[in-house]
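ingest -> validate -> predict -> emit
validate: passed (alphabet ok, no gaps, 718 aa)
predict: started
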Amino acid sequence: MAKRQRISGEQKNTLINSILHVYLENPHSALNYKQVSKRIGTEDRAGKDLVRLLIEELYRNHELVESNRGKYRINPEGQRYQKSVTTHMTGTVDMKQSGKAYVIPDDKSGDVFINAGNTGHALHGDTVKVSLFPIRKGRKREGEIVEVVRRNKTQFVGILEITKNYAFVVPDNAAMPVDIFIPRENLKEARHGQKVIVVISEWPEHSRNPFGKIVQVLGKPGDNQVEMQSILAEFEFPLSFTKASEKEAAAVPVEIPEKEIRSRKDFRKVFTITIDPEDAKDFDDAISLEKMQNGHWEVGIHIADVSHYVTPGSAVDKEAFQRGTSIYLVDRVIPMLPERLSNELCSLQPHKDRLCFSAVFELDEKGKIYHEWFGKTIIHSDRRFAYEEVQEIIESGKGEYAEEIRIFNTIAGALRAERFRHGSINFETQEVRFRLDESGKPLAIYLREMKEANKLIEDFMLLANRRVAERAGKKRGERPPKTFVYRVHDTPSPEKLQAFVDFIKKLGYRMILTSNKALAQSFNTLFRDIQGTGTETMIETIAIRTMAKAFYSTHNIGHYGLAFPYYTHFTSPIRRYPDLMAHRIFQQYLQGAPSVKADEYEPMCDHASEMERKAIEAERMSVRYKQAEYMLDKVGQEFDGLISGVSKWGIFVEIVGIKCEGMVRLRDLEDDFYYLDEENFQVIGQRYGYQYKLGDKVRIRVKRIDLGKKQMDFDLVI
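emit:
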């Protein structure tokens, strides 16, 4: 008998909407659960059982009526049917480069296709009202955007083009389908060919293009400073701190009052180190080690006490909240806090007294926890290590503090092994890094992998984050759990998961779906088996796309990827605002305060999640720009590559060793007519049957580099 599949409330609602969508598209047809399962792509046994149970639930709720035994139709008098006959809905625009769009409904009832001619004045990310067309058999829902309810953004970056009679800004953003008209009086001092920031001021009803005004001239395209500022401006990140924030940060005294020191647990004489990237300037965290009389080890995880310096409602706090996070572009960091705090007073620099909020554990070398303590401390770091230094000590067993690092690594390894035993998924990604000259030009690209030194720190940070979340939010007795800020990660959608399982099955791999733990172990086994193979990049990429995205919330659903029922972000308050929120709330709870209000913190969590998403996009954009810049002088050269994606336009190829991705356009493949086999992630030649699929090794020649669009075109070397 198949085990019942556990899904979250959100996934259940999504699946119910999908089931109802099938019945609504076929209002006069009687369908059983197998027919419905097939139409929504849920054909494994567990998925079918789940569909059957939900159909029975809809029948009990009078949304469906039974025609024949086991066959159901939509109930014309049911609430869902009555709602479905409405001719309008609202949602968010997902604009494509071709000008067409999809609107993602607020009620998550399934995307609505919008033809390029029916998008009106809507732009990517806008909240819009859609007039729905009558449903056509076998087609997606379609409609026309009739109103922009709320603009997602009005500020854009682009190149100014001035002619004799008019001027336009051509946006950098590929999702922006139209150029922005600039009246002469709104040009300011901008000149033809410059990169500028423009704000849309109006969009007349019968005008094809919005009208705008230039608010800032960034400079010459291709200049490193201009391009990095362009990326920040595109995502509407501030280019500098407010004067009020800078003034407030400058006024913070360097000296720590004796009264403050006496109120804290003193770790200044305990062995303490930081381990960070070589080029790091803000040190959020330190770890300490002390041998106990019973043979156990006391490990301290010490986090910069930003909440001591940044008080709620202050100018620094307000700006930190708006920023949400630090942004890490290729050549610079845009900090969340002014430099005096992020790089000086809050940074856990060696040989200086620093205030911390700490999680301290009594552990043995097998990672077993005997006791834990949380509270405010003062530390004095003995040594600042780079990851590379610690890795060399781990591998050689020699170097400064080699024995202490061995013990740290042994305990971290035990914690890691325990985490994997409980169902944590081992995603190991490679980070693209650059060697730059003084002007920011990329001289080389290399890949940085997570080695034991990185994992050592990661596992202690995971321990602190997990145990803080448990202490703050775990239900005790009959009282409801207190509100806290969690980092949550939902389970994968059944549809995406089944599609992934079906795909890798064709490659000779299998997954076990009987439980979350079994599934996680299957993922880890899969990642181990594909290591070093031609399909490694392809499978890891698709696996990541299968996963839900992590976010911040006061509603705890656990962290699926880490297999933690309670998890928060506590360990980086210098660069993440949710960590600062967690520090403040946790300190109140340690002092016996009642629960904070969820409705006050949930909007703050939503904002933090959105700013994190924008920061990640900005960081990726800066990487793509530097990769394109690095390849500029390599047009005509040949490289080995792996096919990283396929579309109806072409084959995406990633160059081995440097992860520069470009497209081989299908129209440039002159040996055959190729079509997309989307289900099997490949393109196939109609005449001769040549196949190019994800993970295939190919040889490419660099054809063209478009630096402005951060795009690369390749040719296949046959």
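The first helix runs from residue 9 to 25.
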